[in-house]
């Protein structure tokens, strides 16, 4: 007893395999996006901590050399924190520019009210 239409069965099987492969690719793309967002988050945390640490180190070193108690340490820690925040914001703008697509090719960059 043979199948009525083996070519039809092969085409159905091929369609099912193609659908499974496509679903697997989209799942993998979502996982990669998730990991890339985690990497971006760690990058921003590292930039913030680095700015804070460098500012603290410079301020502490200058306080020891100049004998100015905690004044320069506090000042440079605040400056390092501000620098870390600045770098984080720059990174966020860079990433936002990569992920954002314009709504239409010929539109202007105003708000939705047309101003």
In short:
With 115 residues, this protein is an all-alpha fold.
Can you tag this structure with a few keywords?
mainly alpha; 115 residues
Structural summary, described in words:
- This is ATP synthase protein I.
- Residues 106-115 have a biased composition (Basic and acidic residues).
- It holds the Pfam family ATPase_gene1.
- Keywords: Hydrogen ion transport, Ion transport, Membrane, Transmembrane, Transmembrane helix, Transport.
- The structure is a single chain.
- The termini are far apart.
- It is rod-shaped, with a radius of gyration of 28 Å.
- The protein has a domain at 16-94.
- 78% of the residues lie in helices and 0% in strands.
- It is an all-alpha fold and 115 residues long.
- The mean pLDDT is 81.
- The protein contains two helices and no strands.
- Helix 1 (6-66) runs antiparallel to helix 2 (71-99).
């Amino acid at each position: 007893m043979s199948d009525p239409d083996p070519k039809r069965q092969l085409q159905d099987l091929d369609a099912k395999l193609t659908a499974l492969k496509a679903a697997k690719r989209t799942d993998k793309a979502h996982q990669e996006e998730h990991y890339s967002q985690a990497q971006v988050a760690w990058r921003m945390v590292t930039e913030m901590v680095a700015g804070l640490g460098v500012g603290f180190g410079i301020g502490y070193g200058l306080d020891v050399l100049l004998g100015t108690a905690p004044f320069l340490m506090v000042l440079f820690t605040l400056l390092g924190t501000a620098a870390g925040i600045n770098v984080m914001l720059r990174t966020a703008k860079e990433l936002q520019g990569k992920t954002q697509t314009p709504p239409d090719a010929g539109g202007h960059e105003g708000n939705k009210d047309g101003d």
